[in-house]
Amino acid sequence: MSDPVNYPGRMSHEPENLPAPLPAGELRASDADRERVAAVLHEAAGEGRIGLDELTERLDAVYAARTYAELEPLTRDLPSAGLPVAHETVVQPTDPARFGGEPTSSGGFALLGGFERKGRWVAPGRFTAFAMLGGGDIDLRQARFAERKVVIRAFAILGGVQVRVPEDAEVHVGGVGILGGFDSGAVGDGEPGGPVVVVKGLALLGGVSVERKAPDDVIKQRKLERKEERRRAKLERKQLKAP
Hints:
Blueprint (H helix, E strand, L loop, with lengths): L30 H16 L5 H13 L3 H4 L35 E5 L2 E4 L4 E2 L2 E7 L2 E5 L4 E2 L3 E9 L2 E6 L4 E4 L2 E3 L2 E2 L13 E9 L2 E6 L3 H26 L2
Parallel strand pairs: 1-4, 2-5, 3-6, 4-7, 5-8, 7-12, 8-13, 9-12, 10-12, 11-13
């Protein structure tokens, strides 16, 4: 269980209303968006507009980009500049394939041991986690949500609770830390239509960590794609240098 990085103490109460839609540039880019930008860069390298070293650098930035605002500068100086561009704010409806259903668990308890909720499970609107001299792992990345907003009440006493949330989730963290704390590094807006995760509770000589992360299979696929792009760039560099 990772240690908390800060001790915010009491933080804001959970939101009463859902937020306004994000500006277009802050919307999350998809894998297809990144592939379109990568194709523009490969074409530019083939035309001699950018060198192979710069191609490699830009491709690394492409596959690390998470929003349209991070992708746009990578092709701004090229004829196909601005790919992809989100021209207007999009409000996505609630996904019926992701929200709704009967919760499969409403809490977890760990005393001198541990518990985990992971994989494809149905998270409730309210989940209570208690860990004393033990640890709990709440993984929401592949979960279905009974409601769009889930409130996790985490109590860590001489122990720890780890919460992993989807990349598109809006995250709020609040709680009381006494010689312990809540990690608020994942706090921030998500994508329109994504889940809202509120984490609060008590950390006494313990910690509650919240991590925004893609599912393990997606992370593995992204690594393979970056490796393949580097291999292709290296091969193109060798071909251009060949007599």
